[in-house]
Amino acid sequence: MMDEDLVIVKVQSCNMYTIFKIKISNY
Predict the structure, then answer these.
(1) Domain ranges of the chain
(2) Is the alpha carbon torsion for 4, 5, 10, 16 positive or negative?
(3) Is 26 a residue whose pLDDT tops 90?
(4) Among positive and negative, which fits the CA dihedral 7, 12, 13, 14?
(5) How far apart are CA 10 and CA 16, in angstroms?
(6) From residue 18, how far is each of 7, 14, 24, 25 by CA, in Å?
(7) What pLDDT shows up at residue 24?
(8) What is the pTM of this model?
(9) Cα separations (Å) of 2 from 7, 16, 17, 26?
(10) In the predicted model, is pLDDT for residue 1 greater than 70?
């Protein structure tokens, strides 16, 4: 379970980072 939680956290972090990059590139 711990490993799965870590994977979920990593995926969410990657998604947030990607959204952040997209917002920055839009300006």
Answers:
(1) 1-26
(2) positive
(3) no
(4) positive
(5) 10
(6) 16, 6, 10, 11
(7) 92
(8) 0.53
(9) 9, 21, 23, 36
(10) no
d(CA 26, CA 5): 32
The pair of structure tokens assigned to 17 is 């980072």
Helix H or strand E segment including 19: helix 2-26
Tokens 């920055």, located at residue? 24
Tens digits of per-residue pLDDT, 5-22? Answer: 889 899 999 999 999 999
Q: Would you call 12 helix, strand, or coil by DSSP?
A: helix
Which one-letter amino acid corresponds to residue 8?
I
